[in-house]
Amino acid sequence: MKGVFCVITCFLCASIILAQDSLAVVTAEKGDGILSLLRKQGMNPYDAYDEFISMNIDNLRDSVHLYEGRNYRIPKMNLDTVAIVDSIQKKSTKIKEIVSEEFAIFGKDHATVLSKSEKLKDAVYYLVSGHGGPDPGAMANYGGKSLAEDEYAYDITLRLAKELLSHGAIVYVIIRDPNDGIRNARILEIDRDEVAYGNKVIPLNQTARLRQRVDIVNQLHSKNRGKFQRLIVTHVDSRSVGQNIDVFFYHHEKSKNGKKLAESIHKTFQRKYKKYQPNRTYTGTFQDRTSLYLVKKTHPAMTFIEIGNIRNKKDQRRILDPDNRQALAKWISEGVILDFESGEIGRIR
Ligand SMILES: [Zn+2]
After folding, report:
1. N or C: which end of the chain has fewer CB within 10 A?
2. Regarding predicted confidence, which is higher, 65 or 286?
3. H-type helices in the chain, by residue range?
4. What separation in Å is there between the alpha carbon of 305 and the centre of ligand 1?
């Protein structure tokens, strides 16, 4: 009896899969990304991107990557709005025109920013990656190679910038490397050619270095007066306090909006981590005196994110994987959206 039941169930399963198949299920092949998968279905991938993600969210790694060999549901095409080839080409050309001029900073292979939504329209973000120029930040050794904090903080910051831009934000990348771009390598080569926004040479002296970025952010902040503005500082430092905590989000103790930003990102990370391990993120106020200078002197509401410890073996595994850096950036961006959508508290900070 049991056997018969099983056969019937399996038969039903098979026919359901077949039925879905003939409707809108495709199997991801080697090398497929979401965009190429949608394009193969004759769709305009940019129009269907968000819907595809929400339909398949449980089946995506870091909510953006396909698993080879798995089946994916394809959003229904509305025949009235199916883009003809010509308009797809036009659209992508237009994107490239805007992007290659404005976002060359992401590097040749990553310069194109696809518009995913307008969720962050008119919001302004200042992104500061820790250290840079003559100061590599924390250093570590990995299989005979040197790792420098500033390179990893910068890569995550660029990925975050790209995410925020794709949701319509105005983004200022304050520490900039003219030729690094987003890098998909595990070992990020160390260089010293980073400059500060406005092509300014980064001073070696620590106080001068911090003052330079504070001044740049504050000048832009007053230029953008009246807009929703936030500052996000990213480090991959060596001073994590607790054990089993991956990411720290700090804010100024007196800043309600800074606190809300830190907590929004913190909440997003907790949600993402929930499945695997709780308590891997932490939010709190500042203690570190050096960082305090930046936190105290900058005008926009801000959060200071510390993504692990570059000298910690477990953290290295996480930070060296480019997919993980992408996931971290994506999660931060989701927290940033959460923060923006809940609005501003009061008028200052
Ligand atoms: Zn640092």
Report:
1. N
2. 65
3. 2-24, 34-40, 45-56, 85-102, 149-166, 206-223, 256-273, 289-297, 313-320, 322-341
4. 10
**Cα 149 to middle of ligand 1, angstroms:** 7
Residues 327, 224, single domain; the answer is: yes
User: 118 vs 194, 281, 339, 341, CA distance in Å?
Assistant: 31, 28, 15, 11
Q: Read off the CATH number of the domain in which 166 is found.
A: 3.40.630.40
Query: Is there a domain that residue 150 lies in?
Result: yes
| Rounded Cα distance, 205 and 211, in Å | 10
Residue 92 in this model has a pLDDT that exceeds 60: no
Domain range spanning residue 299? 115-341
CA distance 309 to 261: 22
pLDDT of 336 higher than 60 = yes
Token pair recorded at residue 86: 């010509």
CA of 330 to the centre of ligand 1 (A): 21
Number of domains in the chain: 2
Q: Which of 68, 87, 106 is the last residue of a domain?
A: 68
Q: Is 325 a domain residue? A: yes
User: ∠ at Cα 171 (274, 264), nearest 5°?
Assistant: 25
E-state strands within 116-257: 124-129, 139-142, 145-148, 170-173, 175-176, 195-196, 200-201, 229-235, 247-251
Q: Is 86 contained in some domain?
A: no
Alpha-carbon distance 44 to 93, whole Å?
14
